[in-house]
Input
Amino acid sequence: MEKLLSVTLAVMAAAVVTVVPSIAQHMQPSRVSIEHLEEARALKSPLPDSPDVVEKGKAIYHGKGTCANCHGPEGAGDGPVASQLNPSPRNFQHHGFWRHRTEGEIFWVIKHGSPGTSMVGFADQLTDEDIWALIQYERTFAKGHGHGRGMGPGGMGHRGGGSGGCEGEHCDR
Ligand code: HEC
Output
């Protein structure tokens, strides 16, 4: 009996050691502080999906927003100053990022920043509409995978434009 117990404990310990770091790497916990999370997740873009909005976002990303300096010209998180930053700027080409966030959480971080990182809030420089346009542009870096629904109800679904097709019941946007 004692032997069985120690074997069980050893197996459990091994499981913890292998599972925990991969969660830390892949879960990408929200950058919105817990007291604002519900409010942030509920935010929805008032802008229609349109090429004009994407163009507006693009102009801000490469212009007055200075986003490209850190996030890179193609959104890969490899802008000219990125190598000096810890943590690194987000890579918008990464599909997992879009799956782990609602658009409201992303909006919140662009507006208010991610505390303790070089991602400062842009509330003073950009209007809400500027920020929503930026998000629409940043989605284009992930090709068809930029329409994540976050981890909440209906989350983890995305619209796979062109290649993957629509997954799950939330294929409306
Ligand atoms: C000085 C460098 C810098 C600039 C300029 C910058 N960012 Fe960031 N950004 C970062 C870093 C670093 C992170 C990662 C923060 C973290 O891990 O919490 C980040 C994270 C993000 C995220 C991910 C938030 C999340 O929920 O994980 C978004 C979205 C984002 N930035 C958008 C923008 C936009 C839009 C602009 C331009 C208006 C911009 N950033 C400008 C450095 C920058």
Summary: DSSP finds seven helices and two strands in the chain. Helices lie at 2-26, 37-42, 51-62, 67-71, 95-99, 103-112, 128-140.
